[in-house]
Amino acid sequence: MVAERRWRHVSPLLVGGGVIVLAMAVVAMLGSFATPHDPTAMDIAARLQPPGAAHLFGTDQYGRDILSRVMGGAGIALSVGVVAVGIGLGGGMIIGAVAGFYGGLLGEALMRLMDALFAFPAILLAIAVVGALGPGHLNAMLAIGVVNVPVFARLTRASVLAVQQEGYVEAARAVGGTDLHVLRRHIVPNGLAPLLMQASVSFATAILAEASLSYLGLGTQPPMPSWGKMLEEARLFMDRGPWLAIFPGLAIALTVLGFNFLGDGLRDYLDPRH
Amino acid sequence: MNYLWRRFPSLLLTLFLISLVTFVVVQVVPGDPAQIILGTEAPPEALADLRAQLGLDRPLPLQYLSWLTGVLRGDLGVSLRHGRPVATLIAERLPVTLSLAILSLAPAVLLAVPLGILAATHQHSALDYGVLLLAQAGLALPSFWIGILLILLFALSWRWLPSGGYVPWGESPLEALRSLAMPILALGLPVAGVLARLVRASMLEELSRDHIRTARAKGLSETQIIVRHVLRNALIPTVTLLGLQLGFLLGGSIVIEQVFALPGVGRLVLFAINNRDLPLIQGLVLFIAALVVTINFLVDMAYTWLDPRISLENKHGS
Q1: Chain A residues inside the 8 Å CB shell of B257
Q2: What is the ipTM of this complex?
Q3: Which end is more exposed in chain A, N or C (fewer Cβ atoms within 10 Å of the end residue's Cβ)?
Protein backbone atom coordinates (compact mmCIF):
# COMPACT_ATOMS: atom_id res chain seq x y z
CA MET A 1 0.00 0.00 0.00
CA VAL A 2 2.71 2.42 1.05
CA ALA A 3 4.72 1.65 -2.05
CA GLU A 4 1.64 2.17 -4.17
CA ARG A 5 0.86 5.48 -2.51
CA ARG A 6 4.45 6.57 -2.99
CA TRP A 7 4.30 5.63 -6.64
CA ARG A 8 1.32 7.93 -7.14
CA HIS A 9 3.47 10.85 -5.99
CA VAL A 10 5.96 10.27 -8.81
CA SER A 11 4.92 13.32 -10.77
CA PRO A 12 5.77 14.18 -14.37
CA LEU A 13 7.97 16.90 -12.84
CA LEU A 14 10.09 14.32 -11.04
CA VAL A 15 10.41 12.16 -14.15
CA GLY A 16 10.99 15.16 -16.48
CA GLY A 17 13.53 16.71 -14.12
CA GLY A 18 15.28 13.38 -13.64
CA VAL A 19 15.51 12.78 -17.39
CA ILE A 20 16.91 16.27 -18.09
CA VAL A 21 19.45 16.02 -15.27
CA LEU A 22 20.51 12.54 -16.36
CA ALA A 23 20.83 13.69 -19.98
CA MET A 24 22.97 16.64 -18.87
CA ALA A 25 25.16 14.31 -16.82
CA VAL A 26 25.68 12.11 -19.92
CA VAL A 27 26.46 15.19 -22.06
CA ALA A 28 28.91 16.37 -19.39
CA MET A 29 30.66 13.00 -19.39
CA LEU A 30 30.80 12.89 -23.19
CA GLY A 31 31.94 16.52 -23.18
CA SER A 32 35.16 15.57 -21.45
CA PHE A 33 36.32 13.09 -24.09
CA ALA A 34 33.91 12.63 -27.00
CA THR A 35 33.03 16.02 -28.46
CA PRO A 36 32.63 16.34 -32.27
CA HIS A 37 35.58 18.79 -32.29
CA ASP A 38 38.19 19.95 -29.80
CA PRO A 39 36.31 22.60 -27.74
CA THR A 40 39.38 24.84 -27.55
CA ALA A 41 40.79 24.29 -31.07
CA MET A 42 40.70 27.49 -33.13
CA ASP A 43 40.10 27.50 -36.88
CA ILE A 44 40.17 31.08 -38.11
CA ALA A 45 39.13 30.02 -41.63
CA ALA A 46 35.88 28.65 -40.18
CA ARG A 47 35.06 31.60 -37.89
CA LEU A 48 31.44 32.67 -37.31
CA GLN A 49 29.94 29.87 -39.38
CA PRO A 50 26.17 29.53 -38.95
CA PRO A 51 24.74 26.22 -37.71
CA GLY A 52 25.07 23.57 -40.44
CA ALA A 53 26.15 20.01 -41.18
CA ALA A 54 29.82 20.57 -40.30
CA HIS A 55 29.06 22.47 -37.09
CA LEU A 56 25.57 21.74 -35.73
CA PHE A 57 25.55 24.81 -33.45
CA GLY A 58 27.86 26.89 -35.69
CA THR A 59 31.28 28.30 -34.78
CA ASP A 60 32.42 31.27 -32.72
CA GLN A 61 34.70 34.22 -33.48
CA TYR A 62 37.78 31.97 -33.33
CA GLY A 63 36.21 29.21 -35.41
CA ARG A 64 35.70 26.98 -32.37
CA ASP A 65 32.82 24.49 -32.60
CA ILE A 66 30.00 25.75 -30.37
CA LEU A 67 28.38 22.33 -29.88
CA SER A 68 31.67 20.96 -28.53
CA ARG A 69 32.06 24.00 -26.29
CA VAL A 70 28.50 23.70 -24.99
CA MET A 71 29.19 20.00 -24.26
CA GLY A 72 32.45 20.92 -22.50
CA GLY A 73 30.59 23.61 -20.56
CA ALA A 74 28.15 21.01 -19.20
CA GLY A 75 30.96 19.38 -17.21
CA ILE A 76 32.03 22.74 -15.82
CA ALA A 77 28.46 23.69 -14.86
CA LEU A 78 27.76 20.35 -13.19
CA SER A 79 31.09 20.34 -11.37
CA VAL A 80 30.27 23.77 -9.95
CA GLY A 81 26.88 22.46 -8.86
CA VAL A 82 28.37 19.38 -7.18
CA VAL A 83 31.14 21.22 -5.36
CA ALA A 84 29.09 24.29 -4.39
CA VAL A 85 26.15 22.23 -3.11
CA GLY A 86 28.61 19.87 -1.41
CA ILE A 87 30.24 22.77 0.45
CA GLY A 88 26.85 24.30 1.28
CA LEU A 89 25.38 20.98 2.40
CA GLY A 90 28.45 19.87 4.35
CA GLY A 91 29.07 23.21 6.05
CA GLY A 92 25.40 23.90 6.60
CA MET A 93 24.68 20.46 8.07
CA ILE A 94 27.55 20.71 10.54
CA ILE A 95 26.65 24.25 11.63
CA GLY A 96 22.90 23.53 11.73
CA ALA A 97 23.38 20.27 13.64
CA VAL A 98 25.67 21.89 16.23
CA ALA A 99 23.29 24.86 16.60
CA GLY A 100 20.21 22.67 16.89
CA PHE A 101 21.71 19.89 18.96
CA TYR A 102 23.62 21.89 21.54
CA GLY A 103 21.76 25.22 21.28
CA GLY A 104 22.89 27.72 23.90
CA LEU A 105 25.08 30.70 23.20
CA LEU A 106 27.14 28.86 20.56
CA GLY A 107 24.00 27.81 18.68
CA GLU A 108 22.57 31.30 18.85
CA ALA A 109 25.83 32.90 17.68
CA LEU A 110 26.14 30.44 14.78
CA MET A 111 22.58 31.05 13.61
CA ARG A 112 22.94 34.83 13.88
CA LEU A 113 26.02 34.59 11.68
CA MET A 114 24.01 32.48 9.22
CA ASP A 115 21.25 35.15 9.27
CA ALA A 116 23.84 37.80 8.47
CA LEU A 117 25.25 35.76 5.56
CA PHE A 118 21.71 35.07 4.37
CA ALA A 119 21.01 38.80 4.33
CA PHE A 120 23.55 39.42 1.54
CA PRO A 121 22.17 39.19 -1.98
CA ALA A 122 23.65 35.83 -3.07
CA ILE A 123 25.43 37.14 -6.15
CA LEU A 124 26.92 40.08 -4.21
CA LEU A 125 28.35 37.77 -1.56
CA ALA A 126 29.70 35.44 -4.26
CA ILE A 127 31.29 38.41 -6.07
CA ALA A 128 32.82 39.67 -2.81
CA VAL A 129 34.25 36.23 -1.97
CA VAL A 130 35.62 35.77 -5.51
CA GLY A 131 36.98 39.31 -5.27
CA ALA A 132 38.79 38.29 -2.11
CA LEU A 133 40.10 34.96 -3.40
CA GLY A 134 40.71 36.01 -7.01
CA PRO A 135 38.79 35.06 -10.16
CA GLY A 136 38.78 31.44 -11.34
CA HIS A 137 36.80 28.24 -11.61
CA LEU A 138 37.77 26.83 -8.20
CA ASN A 139 37.24 30.08 -6.34
CA ALA A 140 33.84 30.56 -7.99
CA MET A 141 32.81 27.09 -6.75
CA LEU A 142 34.03 27.95 -3.26
CA ALA A 143 32.25 31.31 -3.27
CA ILE A 144 28.94 29.82 -4.40
CA GLY A 145 29.38 27.07 -1.80
CA VAL A 146 29.81 29.65 0.97
CA VAL A 147 26.67 31.42 -0.22
CA ASN A 148 24.79 28.11 0.08
CA VAL A 149 25.82 27.34 3.66
CA PRO A 150 23.17 29.41 5.54
CA VAL A 151 20.12 27.85 3.87
CA PHE A 152 21.30 24.31 4.65
CA ALA A 153 22.25 25.33 8.20
CA ARG A 154 18.74 26.70 8.79
CA LEU A 155 17.06 23.59 7.37
CA THR A 156 19.27 21.22 9.38
CA ARG A 157 18.71 23.15 12.60
CA ALA A 158 14.95 23.16 12.06
CA SER A 159 14.97 19.39 11.43
CA VAL A 160 17.13 18.73 14.48
CA LEU A 161 14.86 20.82 16.71
CA ALA A 162 11.74 19.11 15.35
CA VAL A 163 13.05 15.55 15.61
CA GLN A 164 14.61 16.04 19.05
CA GLN A 165 11.13 16.42 20.54
CA GLU A 166 9.97 13.07 19.16
CA GLY A 167 9.36 10.19 21.54
CA TYR A 168 11.64 7.75 19.73
CA VAL A 169 14.59 10.13 20.10
CA GLU A 170 13.92 10.49 23.81
CA ALA A 171 13.66 6.70 23.97
CA ALA A 172 16.98 6.31 22.15
CA ARG A 173 18.58 8.65 24.66
CA ALA A 174 16.93 6.86 27.58
CA VAL A 175 18.53 3.56 26.56
CA GLY A 176 21.91 5.24 26.51
CA GLY A 177 22.22 6.36 22.86
CA THR A 178 25.12 8.78 22.44
CA ASP A 179 24.74 12.18 20.73
CA LEU A 180 26.45 10.84 17.63
CA HIS A 181 24.21 7.75 17.55
CA VAL A 182 21.05 9.87 17.86
CA LEU A 183 22.30 12.26 15.16
CA ARG A 184 23.28 9.49 12.76
CA ARG A 185 20.39 7.09 13.25
CA HIS A 186 17.45 9.39 13.91
CA ILE A 187 18.06 13.02 13.12
CA VAL A 188 19.93 12.79 9.82
CA PRO A 189 17.54 10.28 8.15
CA ASN A 190 14.48 12.28 9.25
CA GLY A 191 15.85 15.62 8.17
CA LEU A 192 17.09 14.34 4.81
CA ALA A 193 13.96 15.09 2.75
CA PRO A 194 14.00 18.91 2.98
CA LEU A 195 17.79 18.90 2.51
CA LEU A 196 17.45 16.80 -0.65
CA MET A 197 14.83 19.16 -2.11
CA GLN A 198 16.93 22.19 -1.25
CA ALA A 199 20.02 20.53 -2.74
CA SER A 200 18.26 20.24 -6.08
CA VAL A 201 17.13 23.89 -6.04
CA SER A 202 20.58 25.03 -4.86
CA PHE A 203 22.15 23.06 -7.70
CA ALA A 204 20.09 25.11 -10.14
CA THR A 205 20.98 28.42 -8.50
CA ALA A 206 24.66 27.41 -8.34
CA ILE A 207 24.68 26.88 -12.10
CA LEU A 208 23.02 30.27 -12.60
CA ALA A 209 25.47 31.92 -10.20
CA GLU A 210 28.52 30.40 -11.93
CA ALA A 211 27.20 31.53 -15.30
CA SER A 212 26.75 35.05 -13.91
CA LEU A 213 30.22 35.11 -12.34
CA SER A 214 31.80 33.82 -15.55
CA TYR A 215 29.82 36.37 -17.57
CA LEU A 216 31.32 39.07 -15.33
CA GLY A 217 34.80 37.65 -15.90
CA LEU A 218 35.12 36.46 -12.28
CA GLY A 219 34.38 32.76 -12.73
CA THR A 220 35.78 30.17 -15.11
CA GLN A 221 38.57 31.67 -17.20
CA PRO A 222 39.23 31.18 -20.94
CA PRO A 223 39.91 28.96 -22.80
CA MET A 224 37.75 26.68 -20.59
CA PRO A 225 34.30 26.62 -22.20
CA SER A 226 32.03 28.01 -19.48
CA TRP A 227 28.48 28.81 -20.63
CA GLY A 228 28.50 32.21 -18.91
CA LYS A 229 31.85 33.16 -20.44
CA MET A 230 30.62 32.03 -23.88
CA LEU A 231 27.67 34.42 -23.54
CA GLU A 232 29.99 37.25 -22.53
CA GLU A 233 32.16 36.62 -25.59
CA ALA A 234 29.04 36.39 -27.76
CA ARG A 235 28.04 39.92 -26.76
CA LEU A 236 30.59 41.46 -29.13
CA PHE A 237 29.84 39.25 -32.12
CA MET A 238 26.16 38.49 -31.91
CA ASP A 239 25.19 41.00 -34.59
CA ARG A 240 27.09 38.77 -37.02
CA GLY A 241 26.46 35.45 -35.27
CA PRO A 242 23.28 35.40 -33.17
CA TRP A 243 23.74 31.63 -32.62
CA LEU A 244 26.70 32.48 -30.39
CA ALA A 245 24.24 33.93 -27.88
CA ILE A 246 21.53 31.29 -28.28
CA PHE A 247 23.00 27.85 -27.54
CA PRO A 248 24.96 28.46 -24.30
CA GLY A 249 21.91 30.28 -22.87
CA LEU A 250 19.62 27.41 -23.87
CA ALA A 251 21.98 24.97 -22.18
CA ILE A 252 21.89 26.98 -18.92
CA ALA A 253 18.09 27.31 -19.06
CA LEU A 254 17.53 23.61 -19.77
CA THR A 255 19.85 22.45 -16.98
CA VAL A 256 18.36 24.87 -14.45
CA LEU A 257 14.86 23.84 -15.53
CA GLY A 258 15.82 20.19 -15.01
CA PHE A 259 17.06 20.75 -11.46
CA ASN A 260 14.06 22.96 -10.59
CA PHE A 261 11.68 20.27 -11.90
CA LEU A 262 13.58 17.66 -9.92
CA GLY A 263 13.35 19.79 -6.75
CA ASP A 264 9.60 20.32 -7.17
CA GLY A 265 9.08 16.65 -8.04
CA LEU A 266 11.06 15.54 -4.98
CA ARG A 267 8.95 17.84 -2.82
CA ASP A 268 5.76 16.20 -4.12
CA TYR A 269 7.26 12.74 -3.70
CA LEU A 270 8.73 13.20 -0.23
CA ASP A 271 6.14 15.53 1.29
CA PRO A 272 2.65 14.03 1.07
CA ARG A 273 1.02 17.39 1.93
CA HIS A 274 1.81 18.67 -1.56
CA MET B 1 3.99 48.04 17.37
CA ASN B 2 5.24 45.76 20.12
CA TYR B 3 6.15 43.22 17.49
CA LEU B 4 8.15 45.80 15.57
CA TRP B 5 10.02 46.99 18.63
CA ARG B 6 10.92 43.42 19.40
CA ARG B 7 12.25 42.96 15.87
CA PHE B 8 14.28 46.17 15.94
CA PRO B 9 17.22 44.93 18.08
CA SER B 10 17.42 41.90 15.82
CA LEU B 11 17.71 44.25 12.82
CA LEU B 12 20.54 46.13 14.55
CA LEU B 13 22.32 42.88 15.41
CA THR B 14 22.05 41.67 11.82
CA LEU B 15 23.39 45.00 10.53
CA PHE B 16 26.31 44.77 12.97
CA LEU B 17 27.09 41.20 11.85
CA ILE B 18 26.87 42.27 8.21
CA SER B 19 29.47 44.95 8.86
CA LEU B 20 31.68 42.37 10.56
CA VAL B 21 31.36 39.83 7.71
CA THR B 22 32.02 42.58 5.13
CA PHE B 23 35.13 43.74 6.98
CA VAL B 24 36.49 40.21 7.36
CA VAL B 25 35.86 39.29 3.68
CA VAL B 26 37.56 42.46 2.46
CA GLN B 27 40.56 41.87 4.73
CA VAL B 28 41.22 38.67 2.78
CA VAL B 29 41.46 40.59 -0.51
CA PRO B 30 45.11 40.51 -1.57
CA GLY B 31 46.73 43.85 -2.32
CA ASP B 32 48.16 46.64 -0.23
CA PRO B 33 46.04 49.82 -0.44
CA ALA B 34 49.16 51.95 0.04
CA GLN B 35 50.80 50.28 -2.93
CA ILE B 36 47.63 50.64 -4.97
CA ILE B 37 47.70 54.42 -4.35
CA LEU B 38 51.44 55.01 -4.76
CA GLY B 39 52.21 52.33 -7.35
CA THR B 40 54.63 49.39 -7.31
CA GLU B 41 57.69 51.62 -7.73
CA ALA B 42 57.06 53.59 -4.52
CA PRO B 43 59.90 53.59 -1.92
CA PRO B 44 59.23 51.49 1.23
CA GLU B 45 59.36 54.55 3.52
CA ALA B 46 56.61 56.31 1.55
CA LEU B 47 54.52 53.13 1.66
CA ALA B 48 55.03 52.83 5.44
CA ASP B 49 54.09 56.50 5.91
CA LEU B 50 50.92 56.14 3.88
CA ARG B 51 49.99 52.91 5.70
CA ALA B 52 50.32 54.75 9.02
CA GLN B 53 48.33 57.66 7.61
CA LEU B 54 45.54 55.31 6.49
CA GLY B 55 45.62 53.52 9.83
CA LEU B 56 46.59 50.22 8.21
CA ASP B 57 49.43 49.63 10.68
CA ARG B 58 46.96 49.34 13.57
CA PRO B 59 45.58 45.99 14.82
CA LEU B 60 42.56 44.70 12.85
CA PRO B 61 39.97 45.12 15.66
CA LEU B 62 40.97 48.79 15.96
CA GLN B 63 40.77 49.24 12.19
CA TYR B 64 37.29 47.69 12.26
CA LEU B 65 36.14 49.95 15.10
CA SER B 66 37.39 53.08 13.40
CA TRP B 67 35.71 52.02 10.11
CA LEU B 68 32.47 51.26 11.95
CA THR B 69 32.38 54.62 13.76
CA GLY B 70 32.97 56.28 10.39
CA VAL B 71 30.12 54.28 8.85
CA LEU B 72 27.78 55.33 11.67
CA ARG B 73 28.61 58.96 10.81
CA GLY B 74 27.88 58.26 7.13
CA ASP B 75 31.56 58.14 6.17
CA LEU B 76 32.28 54.99 4.16
CA GLY B 77 35.89 55.94 3.45
CA VAL B 78 37.60 57.22 0.30
CA SER B 79 37.93 55.24 -2.93
CA LEU B 80 41.56 54.43 -3.73
CA ARG B 81 41.06 54.71 -7.49
CA HIS B 82 38.59 57.59 -7.71
CA GLY B 83 40.07 59.55 -4.80
CA ARG B 84 36.53 60.56 -3.78
CA PRO B 85 34.30 59.56 -0.86
CA VAL B 86 32.68 56.15 -1.31
CA ALA B 87 29.34 57.52 -0.09
CA THR B 88 29.37 60.19 -2.82
CA LEU B 89 30.20 57.63 -5.51
CA ILE B 90 27.31 55.43 -4.33
CA ALA B 91 24.90 58.39 -4.13
CA GLU B 92 25.73 59.38 -7.72
CA ARG B 93 24.98 55.92 -9.05
CA LEU B 94 22.10 54.95 -6.80
CA PRO B 95 19.31 56.55 -8.91
CA VAL B 96 20.19 54.26 -11.84
CA THR B 97 20.19 51.08 -9.74
CA LEU B 98 17.10 51.98 -7.73
CA SER B 99 15.17 52.93 -10.90
CA LEU B 100 16.18 49.61 -12.39
CA ALA B 101 15.33 47.50 -9.33
CA ILE B 102 12.04 49.21 -8.47
CA LEU B 103 10.77 49.46 -12.04
CA SER B 104 11.59 45.77 -12.58
CA LEU B 105 8.80 45.01 -10.15
CA ALA B 106 6.32 46.54 -12.60
CA PRO B 107 6.51 43.92 -15.38
CA ALA B 108 6.76 41.26 -12.66
CA VAL B 109 3.51 42.38 -11.02
CA LEU B 110 1.68 43.21 -14.25
CA LEU B 111 2.45 39.77 -15.67
CA ALA B 112 2.41 37.59 -12.59
CA VAL B 113 -0.71 38.72 -10.75
CA PRO B 114 -3.19 38.27 -13.64
CA LEU B 115 -1.49 35.04 -14.76
CA GLY B 116 -1.46 33.67 -11.19
CA ILE B 117 -5.15 34.52 -10.73
CA LEU B 118 -6.06 32.98 -14.09
CA ALA B 119 -4.13 29.81 -13.30
CA ALA B 120 -5.75 29.45 -9.86
CA THR B 121 -9.28 30.04 -11.14
CA HIS B 122 -8.71 27.47 -13.90
CA GLN B 123 -6.82 24.90 -11.82
CA HIS B 124 -5.71 21.75 -13.69
CA SER B 125 -6.66 23.26 -17.05
CA ALA B 126 -4.31 23.70 -20.01
CA LEU B 127 -4.16 27.39 -19.08
CA ASP B 128 -3.02 26.51 -15.55
CA TYR B 129 -0.29 24.18 -16.81
CA GLY B 130 0.74 26.77 -19.41
CA VAL B 131 1.18 29.43 -16.71
CA LEU B 132 3.12 27.03 -14.50
CA LEU B 133 5.41 26.11 -17.38
CA LEU B 134 5.96 29.77 -18.26
CA ALA B 135 6.74 30.50 -14.62
CA GLN B 136 9.26 27.66 -14.52
CA ALA B 137 10.86 28.94 -17.71
CA GLY B 138 11.06 32.43 -16.20
CA LEU B 139 12.86 30.98 -13.19
CA ALA B 140 15.30 29.00 -15.31
CA LEU B 141 16.35 31.76 -17.71
CA PRO B 142 19.37 33.70 -16.47
CA SER B 143 18.41 37.39 -16.47
CA PHE B 144 21.58 38.35 -18.33
CA TRP B 145 20.69 35.90 -21.11
CA ILE B 146 17.19 37.40 -21.34
CA GLY B 147 18.97 40.76 -21.62
CA ILE B 148 21.20 39.50 -24.44
CA LEU B 149 18.19 38.07 -26.31
CA LEU B 150 16.31 41.36 -25.89
CA ILE B 151 19.29 43.27 -27.30
CA LEU B 152 19.40 40.81 -30.20
CA LEU B 153 15.72 41.44 -30.97
CA PHE B 154 14.93 45.02 -30.01
CA ALA B 155 18.29 46.71 -30.58
CA LEU B 156 20.14 44.75 -33.26
CA SER B 157 17.31 43.31 -35.39
CA TRP B 158 14.45 45.80 -35.07
CA ARG B 159 16.45 48.82 -33.85
CA TRP B 160 13.61 50.01 -31.61
CA LEU B 161 15.66 50.51 -28.45
CA PRO B 162 19.26 51.47 -27.63
CA SER B 163 21.44 48.41 -26.90
CA GLY B 164 23.00 50.07 -23.86
CA GLY B 165 23.74 53.27 -21.98
CA TYR B 166 21.63 55.43 -19.72
CA VAL B 167 19.82 58.74 -20.11
CA PRO B 168 19.15 60.47 -16.75
CA TRP B 169 15.48 61.01 -15.85
CA GLY B 170 16.10 64.78 -15.51
CA GLU B 171 17.35 65.00 -19.10
CA SER B 172 14.49 63.19 -20.80
CA PRO B 173 12.06 60.90 -18.94
CA LEU B 174 11.05 59.20 -22.19
CA GLU B 175 14.63 58.47 -23.22
CA ALA B 176 15.40 57.33 -19.66
CA LEU B 177 12.56 54.84 -19.88
CA ARG B 178 13.72 53.72 -23.33
CA SER B 179 17.23 53.15 -22.01
CA LEU B 180 15.88 51.17 -19.06
CA ALA B 181 13.10 49.24 -20.85
CA MET B 182 15.15 46.16 -21.75
CA PRO B 183 17.09 45.98 -18.45
CA ILE B 184 13.79 46.24 -16.56
CA LEU B 185 12.29 43.38 -18.55
CA ALA B 186 15.41 41.23 -18.24
CA LEU B 187 15.48 41.64 -14.49
CA GLY B 188 11.72 41.50 -13.99
CA LEU B 189 10.87 38.34 -15.94
CA PRO B 190 12.49 35.84 -13.53
CA VAL B 191 10.73 37.62 -10.65
CA ALA B 192 7.44 37.30 -12.57
CA GLY B 193 8.02 33.53 -12.58
CA VAL B 194 8.43 33.34 -8.81
CA LEU B 195 5.51 35.69 -8.24
CA ALA B 196 3.05 33.94 -10.58
CA ARG B 197 3.61 30.65 -8.75
CA LEU B 198 3.06 32.31 -5.39
CA VAL B 199 -0.08 34.21 -6.47
CA ARG B 200 -1.52 30.96 -7.82
CA ALA B 201 -0.70 29.01 -4.65
CA SER B 202 -2.07 31.69 -2.29
CA MET B 203 -5.22 32.07 -4.39
CA LEU B 204 -5.81 28.31 -4.28
CA GLU B 205 -5.34 28.27 -0.53
CA GLU B 206 -7.78 31.16 -0.04
CA LEU B 207 -10.30 29.64 -2.45
CA SER B 208 -10.44 26.48 -0.35
CA ARG B 209 -11.36 28.30 2.89
CA ASP B 210 -14.73 28.02 4.61
CA HIS B 211 -15.73 31.67 4.28
CA ILE B 212 -15.42 31.35 0.50
CA ARG B 213 -17.82 28.41 0.58
CA THR B 214 -20.21 30.56 2.63
CA ALA B 215 -19.85 33.42 0.14
CA ARG B 216 -20.67 31.01 -2.69
CA ALA B 217 -23.68 29.71 -0.74
CA LYS B 218 -24.85 33.31 -0.33
CA GLY B 219 -24.96 33.48 -4.12
CA LEU B 220 -22.05 35.82 -4.77
CA SER B 221 -20.60 35.58 -8.26
CA GLU B 222 -17.08 34.16 -8.74
CA THR B 223 -15.79 37.62 -9.68
CA GLN B 224 -17.27 39.16 -6.53
CA ILE B 225 -15.79 36.38 -4.42
CA ILE B 226 -12.34 36.83 -5.92
CA VAL B 227 -12.31 40.61 -5.75
CA ARG B 228 -13.92 40.95 -2.30
CA HIS B 229 -12.73 37.91 -0.39
CA VAL B 230 -9.82 36.16 -2.02
CA LEU B 231 -7.53 38.79 -3.48
CA ARG B 232 -6.77 40.78 -0.36
CA ASN B 233 -5.66 37.78 1.68
CA ALA B 234 -3.97 36.12 -1.27
CA LEU B 235 -1.93 39.21 -2.05
CA ILE B 236 -0.42 39.50 1.44
CA PRO B 237 2.31 36.91 0.80
CA THR B 238 2.81 38.52 -2.60
CA VAL B 239 3.71 41.85 -0.99
CA THR B 240 6.18 40.08 1.27
CA LEU B 241 7.75 38.26 -1.63
CA LEU B 242 7.99 41.49 -3.62
CA GLY B 243 9.93 43.06 -0.79
CA LEU B 244 12.21 40.07 -0.52
CA GLN B 245 12.73 40.11 -4.28
CA LEU B 246 14.14 43.64 -4.04
CA GLY B 247 17.26 42.04 -2.57
CA PHE B 248 17.47 39.66 -5.52
CA LEU B 249 16.88 42.57 -7.89
CA LEU B 250 19.65 44.67 -6.32
CA GLY B 251 22.01 41.70 -6.66
CA GLY B 252 20.80 40.94 -10.18
CA SER B 253 21.31 44.54 -11.22
CA ILE B 254 25.08 44.02 -10.85
CA VAL B 255 25.00 41.66 -13.84
CA ILE B 256 22.30 43.50 -15.79
CA GLU B 257 24.09 46.85 -15.46
CA GLN B 258 27.11 45.16 -17.02
CA VAL B 259 25.03 43.74 -19.92
CA PHE B 260 23.47 47.12 -20.73
CA ALA B 261 26.44 49.35 -19.75
CA LEU B 262 24.36 51.20 -17.14
CA PRO B 263 26.37 53.45 -14.80
CA GLY B 264 24.83 52.12 -11.57
CA VAL B 265 26.00 50.77 -8.22
CA GLY B 266 26.41 47.27 -9.69
CA ARG B 267 28.99 48.41 -12.23
CA LEU B 268 30.75 50.26 -9.44
CA VAL B 269 30.98 46.94 -7.53
CA LEU B 270 32.70 45.34 -10.52
CA PHE B 271 35.00 48.32 -10.95
CA ALA B 272 35.95 48.06 -7.28
CA ILE B 273 36.59 44.30 -7.48
CA ASN B 274 38.56 44.48 -10.72
CA ASN B 275 40.70 47.35 -9.41
CA ARG B 276 41.12 46.00 -5.87
CA ASP B 277 39.70 49.24 -4.49
CA LEU B 278 39.25 47.94 -0.93
CA PRO B 279 37.41 50.85 0.73
CA LEU B 280 35.07 50.98 -2.24
CA ILE B 281 34.38 47.20 -2.12
CA GLN B 282 33.85 47.40 1.64
CA GLY B 283 31.52 50.39 1.43
CA LEU B 284 29.50 48.99 -1.46
CA VAL B 285 29.01 45.51 -0.02
CA LEU B 286 27.98 46.95 3.33
CA PHE B 287 25.66 49.50 1.72
CA ILE B 288 23.86 46.99 -0.51
CA ALA B 289 23.48 44.36 2.22
CA ALA B 290 22.28 46.95 4.76
CA LEU B 291 19.80 48.29 2.20
CA VAL B 292 18.42 44.80 1.59
CA VAL B 293 18.08 44.03 5.30
CA THR B 294 16.35 47.36 5.94
CA ILE B 295 13.96 46.81 3.04
CA ASN B 296 13.12 43.37 4.42
CA PHE B 297 12.44 44.93 7.81
CA LEU B 298 10.11 47.50 6.23
CA VAL B 299 8.36 44.70 4.33
CA ASP B 300 7.78 42.99 7.68
CA MET B 301 6.18 46.20 8.91
CA ALA B 302 3.96 46.33 5.82
CA TYR B 303 3.06 42.69 6.43
CA THR B 304 1.78 43.37 9.96
CA TRP B 305 -0.18 46.34 8.63
CA LEU B 306 -1.75 44.29 5.86
CA ASP B 307 -2.43 41.25 8.01
CA PRO B 308 -3.69 42.33 11.44
CA ARG B 309 -3.71 38.68 12.55
CA ILE B 310 0.07 38.89 13.10
CA SER B 311 0.04 41.87 15.46
CA LEU B 312 -3.03 40.47 17.25
CA GLU B 313 -1.28 37.17 17.82
CA ASN B 314 1.63 39.00 19.32
CA LYS B 315 -0.51 41.23 21.49
CA HIS B 316 -1.95 38.12 23.06
CA GLY B 317 1.47 36.57 23.22
CA SER B 318 3.16 39.50 24.93
Answers
A1: none
A2: 0.87
A3: N
